[in-house]
Write a structure and sequence with these properties.
homotetramer; alpha/beta; Rossmann fold; Dihydrodipicolinate Reductase, domain 2; 2 domains; 6-stranded parallel beta sheet; 13 helices; 13 strands; globular
Chain lengths: ~350, ~350, ~350, ~350
C-alpha cells in the first residue's frame, strides 16, 4: 500500500483526489490537510455527498511538520505560491511529491516570475520537476520524485496541439486556443464571479490576453516545438459545473483533410487509455465529466486552411486530480488505469 | 457469471443499467435490445460517452424470441403496457425477470387498470410479482422470479414514509408528497416538455392531481399500513438532469421532535447500505446523483405538528437502474452493494 | 414628477427598482445610495447591463442626512434591522417611505422580535405601517405614508391563500406552503450557498421549520382569518435566477372541484391587473420572470380533499421592486400599472 | 398606424416579434399566421406568458392569399426556402416585406444555392433585397421594399468585424469566428439536440466547417472588403436560453493596442443607439438578453498580434425580431428606438 497525504484536500481538486484515492486498491490515505478555516472539520461537513464514504478530519496546515514523514507520497492542491513552502522538505526526506498547483510546472524561475508575479522560493527543485502529462512524458514520470501536474486548460490544449507540432503540420505562430470552462475551475471560494446568478444562463470571456495558463501552454508547446512559440488564449466561463472544451485553430502548413488528421491523431495516441479520438462525432464536456478521458476531434476548414481541434476534459479529473493519480500510478509502477477506469455519469 | 439481456436498453434507464452492469464483476451482458428505431445502432452512436466502454449493437425488438433463452436474467426498461408482452414467455422458460417499467408493480389488475387505463394482458404473473424495494421486501426478493422495480417517485416517497407508518406515528390520511424531479425522469424522447428552453431557468408543476405514481405510492403505502390510504402527490419539473427530492408532510399523531424521529429513522434503516439518515444537514439531489443512495432527513414543525421528511435519490439509479441491480444482487445471493458502491461526482 | 431616492440601491432588489423607476414617466430618481463598499461606484460598474441606461454614482450611507429631504419618497432595500434607523427621520419630515425589507411588515414589535431576534428601534411607526399588498389593502395604501412591502414568499403565498380563507373554504390549521425559489432570492452577496457549483443542477430545502417568512405569512394569514393561524412553510432552492413557485396544500372544508374554485379565484381577483388565474394550464416561474404578475391555478385532489394552489411570481418584481412601484403608484394616485406593464422575456 | 401581419408567428422569433410589436405605439398587428399545426390555436395556448397580453388566434398558412393585402408590412419568420413562396406576391402588391429567414440575405442565387442546397424560386426580388443591418446599411433600408434580416451569428460577427475591415486593420484571410449560442437559436421544435438533458451542464461544437451562417458572414464581409474573403466559423451550443457571444480573432496588419482599437470602434459606431463599446469590462450575453443591444469589446494580444473582438447579442432580438423592428422603424421613418428601448432583465 502506498501511504499518501493531501495538502489542500478541502478544495474541489483536493476533494476529487480524495474520492479517487478512496477507491484506489493500492493506496492508503494517511492524512488530509485543509486550507484556511476548514481544518478540524470533517470531510462530510464540507462535502455531504461523502457522508459515510470518507471518514476523515482535516488537519490544519501547521501540522504539516508532524505528518509529512508518515507517508510515501504527498499531493498538494494549493493556490500558486503556497506549495513551494512544503515541497523541499518532503523531497529532502525522500518522499515523492505531486503538486497539482502551478509552482512546479515551469523549470525556469524567470518564466514562473513573469506569469505569476513572484519569485520562486525553491530554486533547486523547480529545475528537477517533471511536467506530469503522461501521454507525452511517461518515461520521465516513471523515475520522478517531483511532478508538476499540468493545469486544466493546458492539459486539454497541449494534448490537442502536440500531434500537430510533432508532425510539423502547422504554422506554430498561428495557434489560437478558444477555451470554455465550467465554474468549478474557479474553485470552491465564494466570489462575485462564482455567484450563481452571475454565471447562470449566460457566457462571458475573462483574462482575454493575460491568463496564466497561456504562459503554461506557451512554455510547454515551445518545448515540444523546440523553439519559442506564442499562443493566443482566450478563456470563457460557461454555466456548467465541470468540464473544459478547447477549440483550437491553427494554420495548416500543407493540405490535409479531416480524415487524414484524424488518422494521424489516432496513430499518435495509439494505446493511450485516456485519449479518445472521435471520428464521426464531436467532443462534449458531458461525455467526459467525472472521468479521466480527453476526447479529441479534428477537422479542417478547407477554404481557409485552418485546422480545428476540439478537445474536452473534466477540469477536476484529467485536468487535476485524475491526472495526478495517473501520474502516481506511473511513478509507482501500477497499471495506469487503476482507480481511473470509469465512464461519465450521463446525462 | 450471470448472463443478462436488457429489453429497452436504449432509453436513459436502460443505458444507465448497461453502464452499471458493465462494471459488475459477476455479470455478462449477452444482448441489448433497443426500442423503436435504435435497433442496429451501436451504444456509442446513441451515447458517445460510452465510446470505447460499451461495444454492443442494439438488437431490434423482433429478435426477442431468438434471444430470451440465452440468458439467466432479463431486465425490461419499457413504457408501461409493453413489458407484459415479453415477460410471460421468459418466466415460463425459467428465466428471472426484473421489470423497470410499471407493468408489474401492482398485484391487482383493477388497480393497474385504474391508473394506466388499460387492462393487463398478463393476469397470471402480475399476481406473483414482487415489489422490488429491498429495504422493505428483501426476503421476498431473494426468492423471486419476477420483480416489479419501483418507480422513481415511489422509491423516494415510500422510503420516507414507511418508518412513520410502521411506527404508527402519523395520521395516514394526511400524507402529502411534494415532489421535484430532474428532466431525465421524462425520458430520452424529444418533446415540447423536454425542450431545453421550456425547462431551463424555471419550475412548474404537472399532473397535479392524477400522476400515475400517486397510484403506486397509495398502493404501497396502503399495503404497509394494512388499510387503504389516499395520498396527495404533486410533482414538479426542476431544471436539472438527474435527481428527485420529495418533501413529505404528515400530521404527527403524538408529539415528537426532529431528533427523536431522526433516531427512529436511523434505527429503522440500521445496516442499510444505501440509506443515509442526515442529522445536521439536508438532502440535496447533487449528493446522490449517479449513486444508489437515498438520503433522508426528518424535522418537525412544532407549531403545526407537521412532520416533514426530505428524501433524495437519483431517479435513474436508486429510482431505476441501480435499484434493479440491487434487486439482482439479492436474487442471485451476491453482496448487495456489488457494482453499486460509489459516491456522487460533485460538484 | 415624483422625486425619489433609494437606500440600498446596489443590491438586486434595489437595482431592479432603479431600472423600473427609470422607465416610469412620472418619477425622477434624485439619488441612489449603496450599502457597504459600493458607494462611490457607478451603477454600470456594478451592473454592466445598465451601461448607457443608468447614469448614477451611488452615494454612501453616511450621506443620508444630507439628501433625504430632497425627495418626496424614499425606498429602502436593506437587510432587516437596518431600515429602522432611516425611516423615522424621513416620516417625521413629511416624506413618504416604502420599505422593501422586513422592518415594517409587522405592526407588532413582539412578533417582529420573535422572528427577527432583535427588538425594533422604531416603536412608533411600526404601528402605523401599512402592509403593501395592493390586492388586499389598496385602500389603506392610498393614504399611507409608510408602507412595509411584503416579502417574496409571503406575496406569492398570501395571494394564493386569501381567497380560500376569506370564503371560509379551508381548515385554517391545515395550510402547508411548499416553496421553491430562484437564487437571486438569496441576494447579491457571494456566499457558499450562492456558489454556482453548489446550486447548479440540484435542489435542496433550507430553513425547514424556521424561515422568517413563515412568521410573515402566519401574521398576515391570521389577520385575514381574524384569529391566529400556524402555517407549515418549507422553502427550497432551485437552480434558476429568478422566480418563486409556491405549492399550497389546504384541507377543504366542503366538497368543491377545481373548476368551482377557479371561478371563485377569478371572481375574487376580478379587475386586478397583475393577477392571472390560469384555467387549463399551470403557472411556471418563466411566465412571470421580469414581470409584476402573480399567476395562480387551483386544483382539488378529490380523493384526499386537499385543495392545491399553485402561485408563481418573480421574487424581485412582484416579490419586491415591482410591488413597491405598484404601491407608489397607488400612494400617488397614478394608474397602478404605470411602468409595470410588461410581459416576460420568454424563453 | 402601420398595419402588419406576421407569417411564421408561432416560432420563437415570431413570438418575440409579436411581443415587441404589441408594445409599439405606431403598429397595429392585423394578423398572425402559424406554421404547421399551430394554426387555429391562440397565442396564449402556445405561450402562456402572453396570457392576457396577446389576444390572437393564429391563422393557417393557406389563408395567406386572403390576408396579405390587408396590411402595409409583412414579416416572415420561416425556415429557409419557405419565404420565397410568399414574398413576390406581397411585393407585387406594393407591400413592404421584412424576411427574418435566410431567403433574402444574398443577392445572388448561386451563393444561396451553394449554402442552402436549393435554387431560389424568386430570381427577381432576391436581387433587390436589402441586407437589414442598420448600422451598415441604414440609408438603403430607408427606401427598401424588401429587407433580408440578418442571421443571428452574422449580426454579432459582422458588427464586430466591420470596423476592422473598413479601417484596413487586419489581414482579411485570418478571420476566425468562435461562436457560442444559447439553445433558443435552434428554434422551438423538439429535437434530440434541444432536449434539456443533452444540453444542460455541458458544451459542444456543431457544424464545425459547414454552418450556413459561415456563408452569410463570408458574403457580407467580402462585400465590405470589396473582395472575396473566407472566414473560419465554428459555432457551439451553450446551456442558456438566449444569447450569442462571438469571439473573433484576426491578425492585425500593424501594431495597435486595445485602447486605440476601442477608441476606433467608438468612433465607428458613434451615435448608434444599439451598439455599446465596452472599455473596462467584457460583454456577457446576460447583459443583452431581451434587448436590441450589441455589446462589443476589443483587445489585442501583443505577443501574437491577434486582435480579439468580443461581441454579444440576444439572438432573438438584435439577432432576429428586434433588428426586424429596427428595420421597420427605419423604413417607416420612425425613431429607430421605438419599442426597442429596454435594458436586460438581470440577473
Amino acid at each position: 500500500m502506498i501511504k499518501v497525504g493531501i495538502v489542500g484536500a478541502s478544495g474541489y481538486a483536493g476533494m476529487v483526489l480524495t474520492q479517487i484515492l478512496l477507491e484506489h486498491p493500492e493506496v492508503e490515505i494517511v492524512w488530509l490537510m485543509a486550507t484556511e478555516n476548514s481544518g478540524g472539520k470533517s470531510v462530510a461537513d464540507l462535502y455531504p455527498h461523502l457522508t459515510g464514504v470518507a471518514d476523515f478530519i482535516y488537519l490544519t496546515m501547521d501540522e504539516y511538520d508532524n505528518v509529512y514523514q508518515k507517508v510515501d507520497l504527498i499531493f498538494l492542491a494549493l493556490p500558486h505560491g503556497a506549495a513551494m513552502d512544503f515541497v523541499p522538505k518532503a523531497i529532502a526526506a525522500g518522499k515523492k511529491v505531486i503538486d497539482l498547483g502551478a509552482d512546479y510546472r515551469f523549470n525556469d524561475n524567470e518564466v514562473f516570475k513573469k506569469w505569476y508575479g513572484l519569485s520562486h522560493a525553491d530554486e533547486k527543485y523547480i529545475k528537477q520537476a517533471i511536467f506530469g502529462l503522461p501521454e507525452l512524458y511517461r518515461e520521465k514520470i516513471k523515475g520522478a520524485n517531483l511532478v508538476g501536474n499540468p493545469g486544466c486548460y493546458p492539459t486539454a490544449s497541449i494534448l490537442a496541439i502536440a500531434p500537430l507540432i510533432k508532425n510539423n503540420l502547422i504554422d506554430p505562430d498561428s495557434i489560437i486556443v478558444d477555451a470554455k470552462s465550467g465554474i468549478s475551475g474557479a474553485g470552491r471560494a465564494a466570489t462575485h464571479k462564482t455567484h450563481f446568478c452571475e454565471r447562470n444562463d449566460g457566457i462571458e470571456a475573462y483574462s482575454v490576453v493575460n491568463h496564466r495558463h497561456m504562459g503554461e501552454i506557451e512554455y510547454q508547446v515551445s518545448r515540444i516545438a523546440g523553439n519559442p512559440i506564442h499562443v493566443t488564449f482566450v478563456p470563457h466561463l460557461v454555466p456548467m459545473d465541470r468540464g473544459i472544451l478547447v477549440t483550437i485553430y491553427a494554420k495548416g502548413k500543407q493540405m490535409a483533410d479531416g480524415k487524414q488528421l484524424t488518422a494521424l491523431f489516432k496513430e499518435f495516441y495509439k494505446g493511450e487509455k485516456f485519449i479518445r479520438i472521435f471520428e464521426d462525432k464531436l467532443p462534449n464536456t458531458k461525455y467526459v465529466a467525472g472521468t479521466n478521458y480527453c476526447d479529441i476531434a479534428v477537422q479542417v476548414n478547407e477554404a481557409t486552411g485552418q485546422i480545428i481541434v476540439l478537445s474536452a476534459i473534466d477540469n477536476l479529473v484529467k485536468g487535476a486530480a485524475g491526472q495526478a493519480v495517473q501520474n502516481m500510478n506511473i511513478m509507482f509502477a501500477l497499471p495506469e488505469e487503476t482507480a481511473l477506469k470509469k465512464a461519465a455519469i450521463y446525462p
